[in-house]
Amino acid sequence: MNNWILGNPQNAKDIVLSSKIKLMRNIAGISFPGKLDENCSKDVVYKIENYMDKQSSIYNESFKLMHLWDCDNLIINTYMERQLISSKMLKEKQKIGLMIKEDETVIVTINDEDHIGIQCTSAGLSLKETFEEVNKIEEFLEEKVDLAFDERLGYLTTSPANLGTGMKASIMMHLPALTLNKEINSLFKGLTQVGMNIKSVFKEEDANFGNIYIISNQVSLGISEEEIINNLEAVACEVMLQEKNCRNQLMKNYEYEMKDKIFRALGTAQNSIMIDLRESIELMSYIRLGVELDILDKISISNLNKLMIEVQPYNLRLKNNKALSEKEISIERSLLIKQYLKNIEN
Amino acid sequence: MLCEKCNKNRATVHLLKIINGNKQGIMLCERCANELTNIPSIVNFEELDEFKFQKLVSGLIDYMNNSKSEGDRYEKLICNNCNTTYKDFRDTGFLGCSKCYDVFSDMINPVIKRIQGDVEHIGKIPKKSSEYIIYKRKLLKLKSELQESILVEEYENAAKIRDEIKNLTNSINFGEDGNNE
User: Does residue B177 register a pLDDT over 70?
Assistant: First the structure.
């Protein structure tokens, strides 16, 4: 199982960046995290950690245990930028514990929205593999803990939207051609009709940018885990096909314009002195497209993935180990991008 | 100090309205401030998404239960296990504990139908509960088969099924609640 950032060399250019499965579970008999006070929440954290410690006998790598109440907000924000945790967790940090696998493919959250959240992210389109991983952990926990479950409603979750399988499956895709063509709008509408949800990873004041989208299942009750995965995979393949067709059309009819955009993006990225987040993400989308279309080489997708994380503000602050003003952040960002993209002659 | 609009949350935003030189100030919590001014103080995309969806759920709950005359009765409902009130659920879209699903079942069920569809869980079952659930499902199936046989006057068959039921209930000894909540 590969961390999505490092990518899978064989099909790194495949449009799908990562697949993620999250299982949400609650302990029977205890109030859900929203209703627990700090002390009870911490008890839940210690309890689960105790059970999971024995994991080391099952897994070769051990899990890193983290108590968010002991963590610096900066670190928590960097985890959020790495898509490991949600922004809500910062607000509730007094109650939350985390268990992160060394390679960061698996993370178990305690007292997020639900008592236990088991999440695995892997590179490319690999939902089945990812599901097996979370399932293993869930079955292990199930033996130690009584989970809140109802025969009719399935696994009981804090939000009725996650009842039943308590599973959220999602895939992250790079869809620049569909966005350029504005076909992404019909995709937004069409997917809700098949019980799926799509949203842009990057957003600023209601405008999407960056061309990276996450498609996830909306419905979790009345459908089996296998069906959710199969449906999502089928949708992913169809969207991939549409995106590829769109790219082919664009290259066929607008080859020069597309190459111009791609090389201009590379040029700006390699030479700017200051750059804000939005622009850097937009440029990287074109560069990524260039790599995926084999127009640019010597840049790896995994470097672009790393860059996508590291240009974000908290990650930059962490890297530079000091408080930075907005201006300093945009300067540092530029330097970072140049570092990654130097020596690329195309 | 408390928000002057909802009187519930702590006031963290001071909204100052200056019209033609007249100053009007009001202390608000973040949520009320957002509602009044549409100025997003949260920039993170994920937070906006979550917030909107939960608001949708709350809106649904409100809509579905407003038209019923029992609306007043619902207001008084409270879960003994976690002290969640109907208002809490309506405001946040979140429940407080597993018992809430029983306490508020009347109002939750239509919401679940809207969000998830009118269905029952067919996915994974926790191993601890699975035996009991399989037993229950088999029992139900046998009982309905028994009824059918009686209706079509196949009494021999009915007798066989009756014995099967007897064997099943005797061999597996479960309490009233079984193993699941």
Answer: no
Residues in B closer than 8 angstroms to A155, CB to CB, are 121, 126
Cα–Cα distances in angstroms (integers) from residue A238 to residues A48, A168, A245, in the given order: 40, 20, 11
What is the C-alpha to C-alpha distance for residues B63 and B110, in angstroms, rounded to an integer? 11
User: Is B108's CB within 8 Å of A160's CB?
Assistant: yes
Residue A154 and residue B93: Cα distance in Å, rounded? 18
Burial class (CB in 10 A: 0-12, 13-18, 19+), A228: buried
Taking each helix axis from N to C terminus, what angle separates B127-151 and B155-171, rounded to the nearest 10 degrees? 160
State the Cα–Cα distance between residues A235 and A231, nearest whole angstrom: 6
Higher pLDDT, residue B9 or A301: A301
What is the mean predicted confidence (pLDDT) over B124-137?
Answer: 80
Query: Over 70: is that where the pLDDT of A344 sits?
Result: no
Q: Is residue A253 exposed (0-12), middle (13-18) or buried (19+ Cβ within 10 Å)?
A: exposed
Q: Which residue has the higher pLDDT, B15 or A242?
A: A242
Residue A117: how many other CB atoms lie within 10 Å: 24
Residue B66 clears pLDDT 70, i.e. is over it: no
As a three-state string, the secondary structure of A33-89 is HHHCCHHHHHHHHHHHHHHHHHHHHCCCCCEEEEEHHHCCHHHHHHHHHCCCCCCHH
Residue located via tokens 């190459």: A259
Residue B72 is predicted with a pLDDT of 65
pLDDT range class, residue A179, cuts 50, 70, 90:
very high
* CA distance linking residue A331 with residue A329, whole number of Å: 5
Nearest by CB to A203, from B45, B57, B124: name it: B45
Name the residue facing B95 among A32, A146, A149 (closest C-beta).
Answer: A32
ipTM reported for the complex, 2 dp: 0.76
Name the A residues in 206-265 with CB < 8 Å from any B CB.
Answer: 219-225
pTM, 2 dp: 0.80
Which secondary-structure segment (H or E) carries A170?
Answer: strand A167-174
Distance CA A66, CA A96 (A): 9
Q: What is the largest CA-CA distance in chain B?
A: 94
Q: Tell me the β-bridge partners of B25.
A: B16
Cβ-nearest to B120 among A35, A204, A222:
A222
Q: Is there a contact between A97 and A66 (Cβ–Cβ < 8 Å)?
A: yes
Q: Which residues contact A74 (CB under 8 A, 6 or more apart)?
A: A314, A317, A318
Query: Nearest-CA neighbor of A11 among A126, A105, A103?
Result: A126
Say if A76 is an interface residue toward chain B (CB within 8 Å). no
Q: What angle do CA B130, A30, B174 make, to 5 degrees?
A: 30
Stretch B2-19: mean pLDDT: 81
Under 8 Å between Cβ of A112 and A98: no
Residues A15-69 pLDDT 10s: 999 999 999 999 998 999 988 889 999 999 998 888 876 655 555 556 788 899 9
- The alpha-carbon gap from B82 to the nearest alpha carbon of chain A, in Å, equals 6
